[in-house]
TrEMBL record:
It comes from Parachitinimonas caeni. Keywords: Amino-acid biosynthesis, Arginine biosynthesis, Cytoplasm, NADP, Oxidoreductase. HAMAP family: ArgC_type1. The keyword NADP applies. Belongs to the NAGSA dehydrogenase family. Type 1 subfamily. This is N-acetyl-gamma-glutamyl-phosphate reductase. Transmembrane segments: none annotated.
Length: 342
């Protein structure tokens, strides 16, 4: 059994990690930490877990995380970079669900996240945890930077086109919509029900912190820099991301065949039949990215529709997918849940 700890278990990604790990079969959950809620039974905060977990939240200072095989950080940005070093030195492997190790250029990270990086020497050691791109590196990684939710949906959607070299790389567009859980469990006015319900708006048009992460990932695959316009939107959904992606074709190609061939071995990507329109509800609670590719009016524009659950394939589920790779388990172990409907 893999002994696992979770640092920061009171947020949406934290409880989603617990839910998925409890059904994994190869994991022993040994600690869930929270400074503020130390001593409170986990199932008291999250009644959905009653009868499934007997742990109480523990203070991270008193939790013996060094005895774990792996520790997940489900914490806000800026926490893992302060605590990961001691765990790594103790031989514990780490997966950070926040952004501390995602961007290889530390100065670029500091610009977008507004703080000094506490462990810049670890950034070069971190493996970017998008399994559909970096599976082999993840298997031997000690520190994995779990991708953001928007970057997951966007990169998976564009990836086959870029690898095949069939699109212009200077004018990519990612028009993305997210449910309010993507903002986390903290109380903020813009995510209050009277503010977010029955409403739809764009935000971060001048620049969103996921933009450099997406550009970095796409540029690595392309072998050159890419031009990307990324516009996120907040929708009155609890879960879900819908990414509508646009690119200009520079050569004729069987798009459906390209996508089906590229993802034929992917455990957590589902290419839908030609002409399909994936829905966010089709992935709710599941670690899968569903996508469809279109060529409107047989023109030179390709449109990719990519949907994920931002808390699962966009966060906790992908982290477990990475854990499976790191410990030599089947990639989708514990991640075969049927999506929830309605």
């Amino acid at each position: 059994m893999i002994k696992v700890g979770i640092v920061g278990g009171t947020g949406y990604t934290g409880v989603e990690l617990i839910r998925l790990l409890l059904g994994h079969g190869g994991v022993e959950l040994t600690a869930v930490t929270s400074r503020k809620e130390a001593g409170m039974p986990v199932a008291e905060m999250f009644p959905s877990l009653r009868g499934f977990v007997d742990l109480a939240f523990s203070d991270p200072e008193s939790s013996d995380l060094n005895r774990c095989d792996l520790v997940f950080f489900a914490t806000p940005n800026g926490i893992a970079m302060q605590q990961a070093r001691s765990l790594l030195d103790a031989g514990v492997r780490v997966i950070d669900l926040a952004a501390d190790f995602r961007i290889s250029d530390v100065q670029e990270w500091e610009k977008w996240y507004g703080m000094s990086h506490a462990s810049p020497e670890l950034v070069a050691q971190a493996v970017y945890g998008l399994p559909e791109v970096n599976a082999e590196a993840i298997r031997s990684a000690r520190l994995v930077a779990n991708p953001g939710c928007y970057p997951t949906a966007v990169q998976l959607g564009f990836l086959p086109l870029i690898k095949a070299g069939v699109i212009e790389l200077d004018s990519l567009i990612a028009d993305c919509k997210s449910g309010v859980s993507g903002a986390g469990r903290k109380a903020e006015v813009h995510t209050l029900f009277p503010e977010a319900g029955d409403n739809f708006k764009a935000y971060g048009v001048s620049g969103h912190r996921h933009l450099p992460e997406i550009r970095q990932g796409l540029s690595r695959v392309a072998g050159q820099s890419v031009g990307l316009t990324f516009v996120p939107h907040l929708t009155p959904l609890i879960r879900g991301i819908h990414a509508t992606l646009y690119a200009r074709l520079k050569s004729d190609v069987d798009l459906q065949g390209l996508y089906e061939q590229h993802y034929k071995e992917a455990a957590c990507v589902d290419v839908l039949p030609k002409g399909s329109h994936p829905e966010t509800r089709s992935v709710r609670g599941a670690n899968v990215c569903r996508m469809a590719v279109h060529r409107p009016q047989a023109g030179d524009t390709v449109v990719v529709l990519s949907v994920i659950d931002n808390l699962v394939k966009g966060a906790a589920g992908q982290a477990i997918q990475n854990m499976n790779l790191m410990f030599g388990l089947p990639e989708s172990q514990g991640l075969r849940q049927v999506p929830l409907l309605p």
